[in-house]
Amino acid sequence: MGDSRVFDVVIVGGGPGGYPTAVRASQHGLSVALIERHKLGGECTNYGCVPTKALLRAAKLARDLVRYAWARGSVDGASVLEWARSVADGVRLGVGRLLEHYGVTVISDEATGVDGNCVITRGGRYCGRRGVIIATGSEPRRLSNIPFDGVNVIDNRGLISLEKPPESILIVGAGYVGVEFSYALASLGSNVHLVEIMDRPLPALPREASLQALRALRSLGVRVFLSHKVVNAELNKGKVVVTLEGRKGREIVEVEKVLIAVGRTPNSNLKGLRESGVKIDTRGFIETDCHMRTGNPMIYATGDVRGPPLLAHKAFVEALIAADNIAGYDACLKDFVIPEVVYIRPEIVRVYRPTNCESASVRVRVDALARARIEGEGGLVKLTYEKSTGRIVELLMIFEGASEVAGEAAALVANGLTIYEAAKIVHPHPTMSEALWEALHIASGSPVHLVDVRRRAQ
Ligand SMILES: Cc1cc2nc3c(=O)[nH]c(=O)nc-3n(C[C@H](O)[C@H](O)[C@H](O)COP(=O)(O)OP(=O)(O)OC[C@H]3O[C@@H](n4cnc5c(N)ncnc54)[C@H](O)[C@@H]3O)c2cc1C
């Protein structure tokens, strides 16, 4: 038997569902071990949120150089990829320093199973007196008809590791990951083909978001195949020959790389998990209550492995809830409003909470705002509210910088503010956040700068 130690808390996984749990548990005075088999920071820091947003930052600069007659210069795709990785490295090192600061014991090993409140790894056994947290995240999904080789057919990890943007790429899946990579790579000079089985990109978001994404991608020359699926993919002289099938027949596309972006599979296959009383649903996600507790009161789960939406900011919040409960507090997560963001240009944000009341919505173009003119980029806000109370139930914001207002939008929706209350919030001028303010004023009947008011009963 190798290493064997006892801590108050043992966490498996060092991503957004794991490392904040370690920090918060340590702040509560508990001794903490965190087991990570690969890189601290998880998918988000190393291959997801951070490097993709770095790529998009560079992509937008590349677009600006083309867009503005007064701009000069060019963007080198190979250097951009290297820089995006270095940004991710910096964030990962920061996570390591944070854990060190809080006295967390980081164990670089792979957990293979659980046994009650103990975690079995390849090299040891670590027990948590107060409990164990499973924050093992998720893996990129594969498609059976596209042979994955990690070289020509790759996932987000392979893409972030490339030396330079491919000359041509076919991206399978137009969820936010596929759309963001399409936008970034096309801006950096790749010839991009995007395939989606549904009839629009971003099918989980409202139609306005799909239309905007389509417009943005097509303006970059991305060939978007909607209602299409990949029926075959073969390697031929270093190229991938892909057969697509749509309503009108088949088409063959030859590309340097194929990126699979069709969702994620949860990492819930630790031995002994089910036997310990942990319930796992048919898709492989671990079921918990609002305290993040699984069917076994000593085992908690957070982040992607706990289920959708698979987003880092959702994982962060769950991580803190789990740590608070394991420390003896009573923390519960209910009626959670989670912003969804697509970081292309213009950015797309949606916040939403379900309602049983009849609702109405206003849709406002915000191209006439002073900031929109400065940025050379307008957009749209769609605001939906309950007719009887005026409570805001959904905000769709499509404008550059919308991601920075997503927290405010979530606060409005989560706290049940009415359009009248929210319209009193002062927004700085000239900013794109005024788009939200204008929409609130239009909804409450008194537009300030914008006159094109279109009301729609739902
Ligand atoms: C391309 C891409 C872009 C994204 N962009 C965004 C974004 O902009 N914003 C956003 O909110 N979300 C984004 N996401 C989603 C985000 O990355 C995830 O929601 C988030 O990483 C989930 O955190 P997690 O800790 O649950 O899982 P992960 O980040 O997957 O972390 C799990 C960790 O556990 C480790 N692990 C797994 N099994 C074991 C084991 N048996 N033993 C030891 N260690 C183990 C893994 O190595 C990993 O480090 C993006 C995802 C992708 C793929």
Textual characterization of the structure:
There is one protein chain. This protein is 29% helix and 27% strand. It is α/β, with parallel strands linked by helices and 458 residues long. The protein has three domains: 3-140 and 265-326, 3-Layer(bba) Sandwich (FAD/NAD(P)-binding domain), CATH 3.50.50; 153-262, FAD/NAD(P)-binding domain (3-Layer(bba) Sandwich), CATH 3.50.50.60; 346-457, Enolase-like, domain 1. Strands 1, 2, 3, 4, 5, 6 and 17 form a seven-stranded mixed β-sheet that branches. It has a six-stranded antiparallel β-sheet with strand order 18-19-22-21-20-23. Helix 3 (49-67) runs antiparallel to helix 4. The radius of gyration is 23 Å and the shape is globular.
